[in-house]
Fold:
Amino acid sequence: MLLSTFDTFQNYSETECLASDHRRVGDLTQIFQDPASARTGRSPRAATRRVPPRTPHETIKIDEAPVRGPISIRDVAAQAEVSVGTVSNVLNRPEIVAESTRDRVLAVIEALGFVRNESARQLRAGRSRTIGLVVLDVANPFFTDVARGVEDEASQSGLAVIMCNSDDRPDRESSYLDLLEQHRVQGVLITPVTDDVGRLAQLQARGTPVILVDRRSTSGNQCSVAVDDVLGGDLAVSHLLATGHERIAFVGGPPSLRQVADRREGAWRALNRFGASAEDLVLIETSANNVVAGKSAGAQIAATRATDRPTAVFCANDLIALGVLQEMTQRGIGVPDDVAIVGYDDIDFAAAAAVPLSSVRQPRQQIGQTAAQLLLDEVIGQETHKHRQVIFQPELEIRRSSQVPVPCARRSGLPAAATTVPASAALRRPRSTAHDEAEQ
Structure:
């Protein structure tokens, strides 16, 4: 189960559940009531009689009547003529209850429409059956795919996932962490807005495990699942250089985001290896990583004089790349003939774009599944747990948006074979491979 809106997540206390004890369940007691009770004036409870065990083909029918509020466990016990403890055992340890009694209680539960108060049970246990997932942008398909992987893994352990959107804002992130801690989640999976992990350390010190998602742990004090974004940036720009591009732009931001910084560093590394310098990379910083920011960057590129305009653009994610692609198309600038574009993440929309988008692929669902596995391992074995840093290797998917080499002069010093390599196998990595960087 994925609870995508935290505002609708409500907790009902055990007190609220038991407060319904004073309610009378209308005429529902009549099924077990002695007819003489109407004449004697005795209470239904005093006049009730025990229902004999059912045969396999018998059913217990209870007259429907309007009921104010939820049915409580005491209502079930009264109707089934058993104690509250017996009903609790039927719900939690049915194997210790006699079959005839268990069948009778289950029949009453079904007839009354009783729904157990899971929140009250979790309150007594001190932990909920939920985990928190805090992402940078819930509108980004990359994070919804990660969430799918988290949910798939969590559901196998009977856990629900509360998904929170920090919107790249530290204040929202902090507020959600407070709420998740108050609701006693089993643990928190988070893609932090900044590298400051002080708040996360507080959570851990108070007993809530924290796993970093799409971010490496610089301290080693948390488990983390990430992709080698430096390598990803290197793959993208190496491909553009190999197809003959010399004026390459990097679009993304803010640079405080570790993923953006690492992908830019990978671009610089590729330039240096091809004999160019970091200054040759045109930097176009954005305040966000979405389509709107991409269109704004695309307008800036399009407004540049054609002789000075970058012939290739590497974008920090696919949403920016799709925005750049839209802007180029609207302004009559050909992709890839005039400007080649490479994105990052390889979301489903990349291959489905009007001009299929080249992109650096991340194993999105596998990232989520692995993060959830690490969290569950830590919850189960806190005393012996060792923190792991799992690093996945990216893979470059080359499509139409960057396949056509540009007819420009080759920069001095570049390898001669680097001018027309549309889909070099050397730029690819085995899909979904990962390794543990270290254990703490």
